[in-house]
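S1.2 Input.
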Amino acid sequence: MDKDYVMRIAGTIREQLVSMTDIAILMSWGIHEFMATVYKDLPGLKFKVNGRLFQGYVLICLNGSDYYEVYLQNEEGSRCISDEVCFDELGELIDRYIESGTDKDEYDKFCSTQGTFLFRVT
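S1.3 Output.
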């Protein structure tokens, strides 16, 4: 696969993810190591996360149907969390698997507890 094409796709994915996702949510994932990649013969973006629910790599790949496929990868293996994601759904989908989960009340309680711990005066 053409390297320039892969780099353009990775750049577009990164731009869409960052512009469509609240910065506080992105920061909660502990993102680092952005890199262009080819996975399953699809161009994409790979980055490392250190979230509350998942630690490892997230891969976002552009498929032939003009949708994204999103994979989570760590020492346990690789799994597809969705094979048909629009650009404006990426942040919400990834956050559900990396950080917030599906129980909003539980996550709000966790955040409140963490906030109290982080901002306490000793």
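S1.4 Remarks. The beta strands are 32-39, 42-50, 55-62, 68-74, 77-85.
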